[in-house]
Write a structure and sequence with these properties.
CATH topology of the largest domain: TIM Barrel
Largest sheet: 8 strands, parallel, barrel
CATH superfamily of the largest domain: Glycosidases
InterPro entries: A-glucoronidase_C_sf, GH, Glyco_hydro_67_aGlcAse, Glyco_hydro_67_C, Glyco_hydro_67_cat, Hex-like_dom2
Keywords: Carbohydrate metabolism, Glycosidase, Hydrolase, Polysaccharide degradation, Xylan degradation
Number of strands: 20
Strand order of the largest sheet: 7-12-13-14-15-16-17-18
Number of helices: 21
Domain Glycosyl hydrolase family 67 catalytic: 146-468
Protein name: Alpha-glucuronidase
Structural class: alpha/beta
Pfam families: Glyco_hydro_67C, Glyco_hydro_67M
Bound molecules: 4-O-methyl-alpha-D-glucopyranuronic acid
Radius of gyration: 26 Å
Strand content: 5-15%
Shape: globular
CATH class of the largest domain: Alpha Beta
Length: 699
């Protein structure tokens, strides 16, 4: 197997040039097994291109005729190559402690050494060497131990097998069709699936789901008579250490099994899940498990049988348990047929109200997958209170790489800073465990038994587009997701540097410093820029209904979806306080229950999420709410215009196809941001009657 390099697809963060440092060295790879073979092949390909060599380890006296520059070895081998012996000796006390995915890395006496207890670790170690480039072969450095913070690092594809009449091939997909499915069939381009797996492994991801959580009739059959298609995808991803999971419908015992019920407590239903799951594992022995959206936006679930979500999740968990599988059960459950006249119902409350009482009732191979915010991936939301409410349940935090609400990959919006804030947030206050700690398995609960972490999940942004993600700069989000799942403490701007140097390799770029500077100028603050010209101060959802692109302040205001801003002539925002509102603030532990309740303490950026205030309300920043709306919307458009200008300055430094695609998308971003600015400013000017203090043009 040769590492896939597709000619008609952008190489993203693994262009051949990124392997130059490694490929020009003498390397030995020791160990056996599928993933070790992948490592060996990666090294062989790079060496063939850049003049290095791959030495086969000898048995017995393991002395190379020339010293190796790089040793990649399993600690469990009968012998490790001579160059690694000193590092192994240093690790001796900890051998077996690196975990399946971990590795040790050191450079001493002119040899770079990667040691791993298991093959996945060796693969991750290889990609760390690639990431470091020449620095991996420069000055010596002592033994570093690398282990991922999250055991499960999963991307969810919302891909449909058949083109859905409303949502298309990929629900909320902005990168063309699906890389797995085309017009009802498995893609004929399986080499592309393999190349995808390679990219994901290099970022740290180790699991994917291959179909939408909204499971339609054809997609449901992936579990049974279409399982062969899933197995074919699994075969492509396996060499890169990526397990395949499947979104299933809770109604499957009825729709596929012909049973009269899908009641999770029914014996026949239990038996059907057990039998069906056994067949899945007979076909795909390393199958990861199921992802389930139940009782949500029209999907069937246990409520239909008067059962709880713990009952529903546990029947599936019982079925996958003998095979080491997991059930990712989504907490995105709310009433999407709300009456907008009813101000007491609050969608933000729903996940906590449904799930917090069930803490401790889920089997230990159930992972409750919680969107990071209580509503739905808005550009600004508080952290979901569910994250702090279920210490006896394994929780996974769900992010959205696909930019449904952040510009749909037509706008530059680097999400690293948002995710860094989310993952570093302390649900019990700054001194307690962080959101990332909860996902990794550490909570503030001292009384209960420790539960494992559920990891990090995200909705993928990838399609069959030649740039993978539609907008070439959106590749950075996909890369950053994997890196954060590996280490949530990484600096988002350092991740961006890694991505820039891998994608636009300095040795192959005319003026790498200028390129890097400009990309930082365009991308570093792009999430906050997007926030500036869209919905203000955390209020969210001022998008066009249905496709969710572009502004429509009242688009959702009188709909059943539960996403309102309540703007009138006097003020704007949702009163979620205990004192006078929906009581949502009471779902948080201290200190946030108090901070969010208090108009004085509530952070500006979340003010309208928690409070309904007059337009003249003065923010901590010193500005009034209305003036803040005007100022940020004017500033946001100026920043996007500046980004467009800066991109024009560096087009000579990048591949013309990338230059053209990014340029065209920046043109659209300027147009769209201007539309956002003008609609938002005009709407709030007409509502409030308050003129802009600076007399700028409002329509
Ligand atoms: C897959 C939002 C999106 C839906 C998506 C849903 C979910 O509502 O608009 O397209 O459905 O989230 O996360 O399940």
């Amino acid at each position: 197997m040769t590492a896939p390099q597709l000619t008609d697809v952008h190489p993203a963060w693994l262009p051949p040039e990124a392997f130059r440092a490694l490929g020009s060295r003498r390397t030995v790879v020791q160990g056996t097994g599928l993933l070790v073979e992948t490592v060996r092949q990666e090294v062989a390909d790079a060496a063939a291109r850049y003049g290095g060599s791959l030495r086969q380890p000898t048995t017995g006296a393991d002395e190379p005729t020339e010293p190796d520059d790089l040793v990649l070895a399993l600690t469990t081998g009968a012998t490790v190559p001579a160059g690694a012996a000193a590092v192994l000796a240093e690790l001796a006390a900890q051998t077996g402690q690196l975990g399946a995915d971990g590795f040790a890395l050191a450079r001493r006496a002119g040899v770079t050494v990667v040691l791993a207890d298991a093959a996945p670790g060796l693969l991750y170690g290889l990609f760390e060497v690639v990431r470091r480039g020449e620095a991996a072969f420069g000055a010596g450095f002592p033994v570093e131990r690398h282990r991922p913070a999250m055991r499960l690092r999963m991307l969810n594809h919302w891909d449909n097998v058949t083109v859905d009449p409303v949502m298309g091939q990929v629900e909320r997909g902005y990168s063309g069709g699906s890389i797995f499915w085309r017009d009802g069939a498995l893609t004929p381009e399986l080499s592309r699936v393999r190349a995808y797996g390679r990219l994901l492994a290099a970022s740290g991801v180790n699991a994917v789901t291959v179909n939408n959580v909204n499971v339609h009739a054809v997609e449901a059959r992936l579990l049974t008579d279409r399982l062969g298609d899933v197995a074919a995808i699994a075969d492509e991803l396996r060499p890169y250490g990526i397990r395949v999971h499947l979104s299933i419908t809770f109604a499957a015992p009825v729709t596929l099994g012909g049973l009269p019920t899908a009641d999770p407590l029914d014996e026949h239903v239990r038996a059907w899940w057990a039998k069906t799951t056994r067949q899945v594992y007979d076909t795909i022995p390393d199958f990861g498990g199921f992802v389930v959206k139940a009782d949500s936006e029209g999907q069937p679930g246990p409520f239909g049988y008067g059962r709880s979500h713990a009952d529903g999740a546990n029947v599936l968990a019982e079925a996958v348990a003998p095979f080491g599988g997991a059930v990712h059960w989504r907490a995105f459950v709310y009433n999407h047929r709300q009456d907008w006249r009813d101000r007491s119902t609050d969608r933000a409350r729903a996940a906590y109200d449904h799930f917090a009482p069930l803490d401790g009732q889920f089997r230990d191979n159930v992972i409750l997958q919680v969107k990071y915010g209580p509503i739905d991936f808005q550009v600004r939301e508080p952290i979901s209170p569910v994250i702090a409410a279920m210490p006896a349940t394994r929780l996974a935090v769900e992010l959205q790489v696909t930019q449904e609400y952040t510009g749909q990959q037509r706008h530059v919006c680097y999400l690293g800073p948002l995710w860094s804030e989310v993952l570093g947030f302390g649900p019990w206050g700054a001194d307690g465990p962080s959101v990332a700690d909860v996902a990794a398995g550490r909570t503030a609960d001292v009384a209960g038994p420790p539960v494992g972490g559920g990891g990090l999940a995200a909705v993928s942004s990838v399609g069959d587009d030649p740039f993978w993600t539609g907008h070439p700069l959106a590749q950075a989000n996909l890369y950053a997701f994997g890196r954060f799942a590996w280490n949530p403490r990484l600096d988002p701007l350092a991740i961006l540097d890694e991505w820039i140097d891998l994608t636009f390799v300095p040795t192959a770029t005319g003026d790498p410093d200028r390129l890097r500077r400009t990309l930082h100028a365009i991308m570093d603050d792009s999430w906050r820029t997007y926030e500036r010209y869209t919905a203000p101060l955390g209020v969210g959802f001022m998008v066009r209904p249905g496709h969710h692109y572009g502004p429509d302040v009242d688009g959702y205001e009188y709909t059943p979806w539960g996403t309102y801003h309540f703007a009138d002539r006097d003020g704007v925002g949702v009163d979620r306080t205990r004192a006078t509102g929906t009581g949502f603030t009471g779902q948080y532990p201290a200190p946030w229950s108090q901070v969010y309740e208090s108009l004085d303490q509530c952070p500006d950026e979340l003010l309208l999420f928690f409070h309904h205030v007059p337009y003249g309300h003065v923010l901590h920043s010193g500005s009034t709410v209305i003036q803040h709306i005007y100022d940020t919307h004017f500033a946001g458009v100026e920043q996007v215009t500046e980004s467009r200008r800066r991109w024009a300055e560096i087009v000579d430094l990048v591949d013309p196809a990338v230059a053209a695609r990014v340029g065209e998308r920046l043109d659209e971003q300027v147009r769209s941001a201007t539309e956002w600015r003008d609609q938002l400013n005009t709407y709030f000017f007409r509502k409030s009657g308050v003129p802009d203090a600076h007399g700028r043009r409002i329509h």
